[in-house]
């Protein structure tokens, strides 16, 4: 017990709230109100809105949900990381916008970067050896 006193209950604490009063079982329905229908009325679909199966994949949101992400550190020199971020900002993002993709997620970009590395995996040993020779 913290010793905190909430005070005395309000005088009308035992009276039903407006919501409780509206949901009483013996309430008479309003004769002016429309009777409930068994099926909700559906509005016709505008022609400009296409079905999910017909939509362009670039307009459907991220390629995969966040729940599929495996976060893992990627270690790079500050200079390399800055160049990478700059290229994303100045090259990749504008091209995505031209393609109509406005909701790109960083996880998608990182996934594609790793896929590109996998596509060129045979270049990694030589590039690493080259970097060591530069020292």
Automatic annotation (TrEMBL):
Region: Disordered, residue numbers: 1-72
Pfam families: DUF7970
Biased amino acid composition, Acidic residues: 8-21
Protein name: Uncharacterized protein
């Amino acid at each position: 017990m913290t010793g905190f006193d909430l005070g005395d209950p309000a005088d009308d604490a035992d009276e039903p709230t407006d919501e409780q009063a509206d949901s009483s079982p013996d309430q008479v329905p309003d004769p002016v109100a429309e009777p409930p229908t068994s099926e909700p009325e559906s509005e016709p679909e505008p022609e400009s809105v296409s079905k999910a199966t017909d939509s362009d994949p670039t307009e459907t949101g991220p390629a995969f949900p966040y729940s599929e992400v495996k976060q893992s550190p990627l270690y790079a020199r500050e200079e390399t990381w800055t160049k990478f971020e700059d290229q994303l900002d100045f090259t990749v993002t504008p091209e995505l916008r031209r393609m109509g993709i406005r909701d790109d997620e960083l996880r998608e970009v990182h996934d594609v970067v790793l896929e590109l590395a996998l596509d060129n995996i045979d270049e990694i040993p030589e590039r690493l050896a080259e970097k060591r020779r530069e020292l």
